[in-house]
Amino acid sequence: MGDQMQFIVEKLNQEPFRKNYNLISFDSLESVQLLQLLNDVLGEIDPKVRRALRAAHASCSGFGTEMCFSLGLAQYLLVSSLSLSHRSAFRQGLVTGSKPVIHPLLHWLLQRTSELKKRAYLARFLVKLEVPAEFLQDDTVADINKQYEELMEAFKNLHKEYEQLKISGLSTAEIRRDISAMEEEKDQLVKRVERLKKRVETVQNHQRMLEIARQLRLEKEREESLAQQKQEQKSQLFHAEQRLQRVQLQLKEMQDAVADSKPESLMKKLEEEINFSSYLVTEKMPRELESKKASVYLLQKVVAEPAMTQSDLTALQSEINEVNAQMNQLIEKRMMKCEPTDSKFSMYRQQASIISRKKEAKAEELQAAKEEMSRLEKQVQQRSSQAHELEGSEILTEDELKQYVNKLRSKNTLYKKKRLEIAEITAEYGILQRTEELLKQRHEAIQQQLQMIEEKKGISGYSYTQEELERVSAVKSEMDEMKGQTLDNMSEMVKKLNAVVAEKKASLAPVIKELRQLRQKCQELTQECDEKKIQYDSCAAGLESNRSALEQEVKGLLEECAQEESNYRYVHCMKRTLEVQLQRAKAEMKAYVSPDPQERRKAIREQYTRMILEQENLGKKLREKQKLVRESHGPNMKQRKMWQDFEQLMECKRECFQKQQNQAAIGQVIQEGGKDRLVL
Asked: Mean pLDDT in the chain?
């Protein structure tokens, strides 16, 4: 209880209450002040509740009902779990401001302030208005109610999205930074677009080119959508081919089955299937259904019966044992009295029962085999689809596998032929490489001989210089041709540019004139706009000052109204409390003045008088007992001292006795050792 009050005081001293309580001042609050405090806490959670409580405060019953309704919306556990009688007592405790009711309620509310604020906000939109069924017969009312439910569901979805966004960790600062960054990017893009527009305006037929670029973009988007549709169509075609292959496989299996069988065998198989199905429907399924119904009936019967103890279980077990013993006796008597004909019939019955049990077992095995086969077929289909997704092909059947093996064999022979050809080409490549090396060596030898001859003739490097001169002359001729072409192109380009500039000047002359007029008009409109803006700012400033003054006045009046309402509620509660106290005083006076002794005993004065007499008698007894204790204290202390001395004396005697016994044992051991030495 102390921890609870400490928590309440700490929460009330914080924002937004700021009550400056301590444990003593909070505990000394009267019932009216506690009710006012509870009203403030509920008003902080939901201002709508504060207004409703103010309206209901005129009548105490309405106040208790409204308070209980508010706590029910907040899902206060004590209210929701109470019975009707206890709930009326709880409501009475709320009206009178009882501490055992108010303190736990304040503790519960202050523990869950944020959660209850959220619940109160949602309750305004999610507490459904119950419309009577007879009103819903009207089409207009039914449509409005349906719209109301749809709006409620939409609000639920929006609130869930809002909570998810809050949990996702996106703060407003980050969003603002992102928005500012995007605005900067937008400004940069706008500037870039303007620069590109200025560049494009100088180009001839730029509008037509822009239109063509726009059409190109649209066509590209259309091409992407068509590619996506093509991909979807391919996937659908792939799935359709898979289904077709499965159906063809099933058709092939059916055809093989039909080709290998005769009409008689097909009829026999159909008869077997019909017999098996009829057996399941007529014999097995009804028997299982009856057994299930019987077990369900027994279970319901067991559930309906009261709980059984161990003694009941032992009694039932003993009854079961007795019934089993009686059944065994009856079976023995029947076996002793049975005739030979009955024994034959019993043998046939046993055989029939054995056959029926075997039949049931085989039917169950067949059913399990069919289920296993269907499961394996599903598993095969799943594995085939997985294999197709991984490898892009279906699992091959036996015939397809044979064809695949034959293809592999033919490819293997082709591979061997190609491998022989590659070996031949490799050998030929080695020969050609060796030939190339020999020719290079011969070329180097000829070059050395040529250099030696040139040195002998005195014209060393003649062949090399001649080759270089031929190469340089070829390069020079190519460069001259390129320069000539470049000059021609540049002259043509200059002519074209001069012509384009002349055309642009001629076409832009009227536009420049119009632009000058528009600039002058723009300056006039800008000046007029500045004047209007100054007038607007002055008018807005005056209206804003008037609005702030009116807001301050309204705020003061609202505070005054709230103070007066608080004083009224305080006076009303004080009046109610005084009336209750006056009623109790009148009842006390009536009981005290009453000539009836029974009524007089009910009076509080008589009760307190009896309690005072009882306490006085108890005090006398306690004083007498104290006197006896004081008189016997000295002798008792002496006796206690004597007993302690006696205990010490006995402890010393015990120690002396133990020492004496130890010395005697040691002497005896020494004497026995001396005797042993003498004997030796």
From this structure: 77
CA distance 589 to 393: 105
Closest CA to 29 of 56, 8, 57, 55: 8
Q: How many CA atoms lie within 13 A of 272 on its CB side?
A: 8
Q: Is 460 exposed, middle or buried (0-12, 13-18, 19+ CB in 10 A)?
A: middle
Domain 1-127, second-level architecture: Orthogonal Bundle (1.10)
Peptide bond into 340 cis (omega under 30): no
Q: What is the DSSP letter of 169?
A: T
pLDDT tens-place string over residues 157-182: 888 888 777 776 556 677 788 888 88
Tokens for 146, please give them: 């349906």
Sign of the dihedral through C-alpha 197, 201, 202, 208: positive
Is the pTM above the cut of 0.90? no
Handedness of CA 322, 328, 332, 337 (dihedral sign): positive
pLDDT of residue 109: 83
Q: Any idea what DSSP says for residue 394?
A: P
Report how far residue 557's alpha carbon sits from residue 469's, in angstroms, rounded to the nearest whole number.
Answer: 110
Q: Which tens digit of pLDDT belongs to each residue from 614-643?
A: 999 999 999 998 888 888 888 888 888 999
User: Of the given ranges (456-460, 522-526, 574-578), which has the lowest mean pLDDT?
Assistant: 456-460
Q: What letter does residue 281 receive in the DSSP assignment?
A: I
CA atoms of 102 and 392, how far apart (whole Å): 74
Nearest C-alpha neighbor of 34 from the set 582, 577, 583, 580? 577
Task: Give the C-alpha separation, 388 to 396, whole Å.
Answer: 11
> Mean of the pLDDT values across residues 433-444?
85
User: Which residues are within 8 A (CB) of 363 and not within 5 positions of it... i.e. 6 or more apart?
Assistant: 276, 279, 280, 284
Q: What is the CA radius of gyration of the chain?
A: 57
Coil/strand/helix, residue 59: coil
d(CA 27, CA 95): 18
Query: Quick one: tokens of 151?
Result: 């709006």
Q: State phi, psi for 305 to the nearest 5 degrees.
A: -75, 155
